[in-house]
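Bug #77: duplicate submission created two jobs. Keeping one. Sequence:
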Amino acid sequence: NSVSSIIDAPGYLDTIEAHPELCVNFKEWLTRNDLIPLATLFSFPITIMGYGKLDEIATPYALRYMSLRTFFPMVFGRIPMVSWFTGKWPRRFTFGFQRLWERVSWRTDTRLNVNITSIIRDNGKITVDFEYPDQELNEIKMVKEKQEYDYLVFSAPFTADVFKKLGLQPNAAEQKISSRVQINPYCMTTFWINNMQMPAPIAPLLPIPDNGIPWAVARQFQDSGINLTQFYTRPAPNQQDEDVIKEVRALVKVMKGEIEEGDSRWHTFDKFTYFQHFTPQDVANGIYSELAGMQGKDNTFYVGGATDFELVEPIVEHSKYIVETHFVKGKTKKSVLEDRKPVREKVMVETDEFNF
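Kept job's structure:
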């Protein structure tokens, strides 16, 4: 219960170094708490889902992720009696994840298809230069525009390449944080595969193989006759993309499946950066206190995977925490909405508990 009271707080990472028993890797924490026999069980939702091996991931991340309502549906969701109580896993948005963000955009001033060329922070003002395509009859031309803002909310990956792409010169504190951020590259390969049945929609490979070999196979719609199959791989250092695909094809043969080679629409390969995090030692040294101290400096605020955990719900919770801490401190919900009423339709984002 004491651990839960720490981890469940939206700003728990701001002072996590005050709890040294949590500032260790998760395998060490399991060992200290006589839970190491469960290590293999935890490897499925943590390692295979891309969050690193148990001796790599810092304990606060694992405990934040492994709430009971997440753990039981994930591990035991195929057991009829358990699934009746917990619901099926994985859960999906009925009309897809993109529809969620489309709905959020309906009541905000959202710009699509915009390429930001520079962000300048100077004298308390944020100047954004951007361009976007504009079509007149059959002619498409790029239109350049400049706008000024009072605050910048940085919700992109906290990596040097992103700062460069946005044309945003990082300050000294940002450079330090971005140099410490760790990233887990992750690959998803898909094929349409015939003559292969899976007893469950998601299957891990146990014991978990080395990096570069697929860790998990998913066929989430096979009950509807859809043979689209996903393979998840954390690539080995310097492993080429084509070598990852070769390993997937080798696994398909072992599973006695037949790849439908005639229709390449179902053949995809995506490699993406994933799970912004810090090492257990950086967490112990107060890296998150430094990040919390940066909030508001240069009229900039930080939300996203690097500030909490690379899942939507924790990110939303932390974003609300930042708003309530820095923008509406000392105000009631009613007074905040009254203050913002003239521009409410432009800036309001609906959540279950608060509108801002």
